[in-house]
Design brief:
The complex is a heterodimer of chains A (176) and B (85). By secondary structure, chain A is α+β, with helices and mostly antiparallel strands. Helix content of chain A is 43%, strand content 32%. In chain A, strands 3, 4, 6, 8 and 9 form a 5-stranded antiparallel sheet that branches. In chain A, strands 1-5-7-2 form a 4-stranded mixed sheet, sandwiched between helices. In chain A, a hairpin with a 2-residue loop joins strand 8 and strand 9. In chain A, helix 3 packs antiparallel against helix 4 and helix 4 crosses helix 5. The longest helix of chain A is centred in the C-terminal third of the chain and has 18 residues. By secondary structure, chain B is of the alpha+beta class. Chain B is 27% helix and 27% strand. A 5-stranded mixed sheet of chain B has the order 2-1-5-3-4. In chain B, strand 3 and strand 4 form a beta hairpin. The termini of chain B are far apart. The chains are: A alpha+beta (176), B alpha+beta (85).
């Protein structure tokens, strides 16, 4: 028991050095296991906010049967670290985990997980949404989808730019 | 000046490969000048840079504008707007 505690305290200490963990991987992720790892040895956490993006079976009027996700090794990790660090500083949350899958995916598959731990829900919700909004516009990932009408690169949505832009406008309110 | 140029997604497909090493002429010192130089370089670059409408740029793995300056050994990446998440 003592050893277990020491191990979890050591793991938590290593985690809290930067507070932001980024993983790009082919494999699926287990949300419960990820949250358990984030919370281990951290009784100061009062809220965990998570977002999970999953693959749909339709887009722009076509049936989607598969997705291929491409990234820019090196830059993608750096961009996500930077987005996480900004969110952590702005809302004073405890830890941020970003897991994004690459490679071939199918409808129903999990694509991305953002998990934020904090003392209270308000800052955890806000930081989680901020990370996703910036990820959508600033992190170098590209989706190619296989549809009933052939394969095509997914187009950006203007609503993603709008979602990101709103965080710039209320900086003064949230920075306190 | 020697630079590494990377292409991603639709642009990589249009160029036909993902990476080039170029020894640039002395008058190519910014992102805008590199794009202009590629656009008149002939196949496959001219076609690819004409065909893909919106192209973003990163220099040394940080998003950059057209006026960003290049340097010896720079890694310059061209890609369409991102669509992750």
């Amino acid at each position: 028991m003592a050893l277990e505690n020491q191990a979890s305290v050591a793991a938590a200490a290593a985690n809290s050095l930067s507070g932001v963990t980024v993983r790009i991987q082919h494999e699926d992720f287990d949300v419960s296991a990820e949250i358990a790892r984030l919370r281990a040895g951290k009784p100061q956490i009062g809220a965990v906010a998570t977002f999970i993006g999953v693959a749909r079976d339709c887009n722009e009027g076509a049936t989607v049967t598969g997705l291929v996700l491409e990234h820019y090794p090196g830059m993608t990790e750096r961009a996500l670290q930077e987005i996480g660090a900004q969110a952590r500083q702005r809302w004073g949350v405890i830890d941020i985990l970003i897991v994004h899958r690459i490679g071939e995916l199918q409808p129903l598959d999990q694509i991305v997980l953002v998990a934020v731990t904090g003392a209270h829900r308000g800052e955890a919700f806000a930081a989680c949404e901020f990370v996703m909004d910036y990820l959508k516009t600033d992190a170098p990932f590209w989706k190619r989808e296989v549809t009933s009408q052939g394969a095509r690169w997914v187009e950006t949505r203007a609503t993603d730019e709008d979602a990101r832009a709103r965080w710039a406008g209320d900086a003064d309110v949230n920075d306190q | 000046m020697n630079v590494t140029v990377l292409y991603f997604a639709r642009l990589r497909e249009a160029v036909g490969h993902g990476r080039d090493q170029f020894a640039l002429p002395a008058d190519v010192t910014t992102v805008a000048q590199l794009r202009a130089w590629l656009a008149v370089r002939g196949a496959p670059w001219s076609g690819a840079f004409g065909e893909v409408k919106r192209i973003r740029v990163a220099v040394d793995q940080t998003m950059a504008g057209d006026d960003a300056r290049l340097h010896e050994g720079a890694e310059v990446a061209f890609f369409p707007p991102v669509t992750g998440g």
